[in-house]
Amino acid sequence: MYVPIYQALTAALASIGANATAPLNLKRGRNSFELVATGSVAWHLKVTFELPLTVLPSIFLAAPAEGEGLAHVSYTGCICYSDHEGEGFDPTNVENVVAFAVARAVAVLEDSLRKKQAGDFQALLDEFEGYWHSIPDCYMVPLATAPVAENQLYAQVQQIHSKRARILALDQGIGIDAKTPRRKVHFFPIASAVMPPVNGELLQNGWLQNLIDQAGPVAQHISKQHGSHIFLFAQARTEGESLFGVMFTTVRSGSHAKLTRVHPFGVQRAWRDYLLARTGVSQVKQCVAIIGCGALGSRVAEQLAISGIDELILIDFDYFSYDNIYRHILGRNSVGQRKVYALKHELEIKHPGLLVHTFTGTAEQWLCDPARRQVCQTIVLTTGQLALEREITQQAFAECWSQRLVSGWLEPLGLGGHVIASKAGVSGCLECLFTDVGCSRPDMRVAFLTPGQQVSRNLTGCGGRFMPYSALHATETALLVCKTILAGTTGYRCWAGDPAAAIAEGLSVTRWHERCRNLPPNEPVAHRDCPCCSS
Length: 535
What we know:
The longest helix has 24 residues, at about 95-115. Helix 8 links the parallel strand 12 (about 285-290) and strand 13 (about 310-315). This protein is of the alpha/beta class. About 25% of the residues lie in helices and about 25% in strands. It has helices at about 5-15, 95-115, 120-125, 130-135, 205-215, 215-225, 270-275, 295-305, 340-350, 365, 370-375, 385-400, 470-485, 500-505, 510-520; strands at about 20, 30-40, 40-50, 60, 140-145, 155-160, 165-170, 180-190, 225-235, 240-255, 255-270, 285-290, 310-315, 355-360, 380, 405-410, 415-420, 455-460, 465, 490-495.
């Protein structure tokens, strides 16, 4: 499939001042060759890439130690010339892609060399963690909380064999498996910046001792004690700090202490603030109560959790069953459990730092105690029982509750979903949607399905009736509910889906649905004759 393209690649490299040191003959699979590229100095590089060419080539310094003090060069000499985000190139144009990669790598080296010669090592210090992670045998260890000098850290350590152990996790001693040995971790913030070890050189070749000396007298004292030690270090970078660790053994012979079995490890930050910052959002100091934890309510809880809400209250009396599996976020392993208990476990396992409370009772039972309401700012109603939610809304307005009420519900067969947020003292509520002067039917003015049609299905008898909608429809409605909660606003919103499935069932849709498909509503929903919010 691939033919020799020595001349084309040689010409492409020559055009950027690089010359291959050996003939090239591309083949499917791994390709590797060395070259000399001309810059302010002669750069001896090694190029590796796979054919078919689906990712950019890797470019290395042929002698990793030549990268000492250069930013964007890893411990193994690999040159970081691209962040590999959104790369798009012609995979058949191998010679030009390789030449482009070499040219970019040389530009990075030249810029790093200029900074080194000027004594500017900030870029290198800022990427200390990335450099550390490139050290062979360095592995990542999750850390549950941000380290501070005042709090003792512990490591969950697994013994692999007599001469090697591995750290599984770091935390403050909470949640560590009792069957796995735990050991103290000594945490040392470093005041003066320490340069990373020379590319390709072993840590025990003086570098580790220098690091310990920089960490201060306590680190020096502990490191001289016979036995195995775990040190975690932190040093400032332009934004935040670099965290890196090492496990080593001290062997004493008289007054002499030798550091052996040196194993570096990196830190995978697993605390809530950091993880949320990775999404571009920050923690939302708000408690939200969700009444009804079925298909819609469970997805509202899930989306709120990953959106930064830091506290949830789940209210539902029901048990999870097989019937729920393909619409709910819970799965087969939760069948037979209380929905709120299983959902709490699922959410807290997935989302570090999230606090979830449960109540196994009805909406009326939870709401009858005003003290329960006072801890939350928003009450979400996803019960699927609009009559119940109307009753709750009327009570909230009559008693002037301070919480916002957010009701969300779905239409059948993918027709759409609705949400309305209201608050006592502000016009516009769920009851407004049912208020229509001169109408004798208790129908909703914003319904998508023409009233009076049978839509529920029955697969097993009267007790098995259900409303046909999918997890996708529940998710889309949950997203609408969550956006409303996070926006902190009141009012009505909806999404309108394709009516094809409903029409195929012989059902008719309302003009409101047709209108909402083309233009989402933005006018106030408050009704002047509403007995709830306009009285």
